[in-house]
């Protein structure tokens, strides 16, 4: 009987952990946005305030929060950024955007490389919106690199369309987040 318990304990100690916490490091996180218009494409950035995502690789459940500093939005043009912050984002009134994940689809390999879809609620401009994001990861036992991509339909989500009779921009902005952070077993 003692031998059976020893074998079970040995097997259990070799099974990979299923619950992890990924802590995004603001210094090693790059948030980029792209907005197309008729004449050219505008590129810009935002800063990460904080971020931690917990996930269970066996069940597909996820939790946590990723907070973005909306006031940090920068396109490289002072006048365009003033219009973006005052007319579209209203960043004084809504200084933060927060993503709260609830689940993912696909197989998340730790260690290893993965392509999954991360689902959750994105709170921006005072509203909650369900989103599904494409995520590519590369994980070791204690670090993870993640690239997250998704379209944010800002006009459909209640933000002002900056288009006018001379300027016609897309109604969605593409977001890309690249982050490296600490991976812990929960």
Oligomer: single chain
Q: What's the main sheet like?
A: 8 strands, antiparallel, barrel
The helicity comes to 10-25%
Question: From N to C, what is the helix and strand string?
Answer: HEEEHEEEEE
What does this structure look like?
It is a single chain. The protein has 186 residues and is mainly beta. It has helices spanning 2-14, 78-89; strands spanning 19-36, 41-56, 62-74, 96-105, 112-124, 127-139, 143-152, 173-185. It is elongated, with a radius of gyration of 20 Å. The protein starts with a helix and ends with a strand. Residues 4-15 have low confidence and may be disordered.
Compact summary:
The chain has 186 residues and is mainly beta. It has helices spanning 2-14, 78-89, and strands at 19-36, 41-56, 62-74, 96-105, 112-124, 127-139, 143-152, 173-185.
Topology:
Elements: H1 2-14, E1 19-36, E2 41-56, E3 62-74, H2 78-89, E4 96-105, E5 112-124, E6 127-139, E7 143-152, E8 173-185
Antiparallel strand pairs: 1-2, 1-8, 2-3, 3-4, 4-5, 5-6, 6-7, 7-8
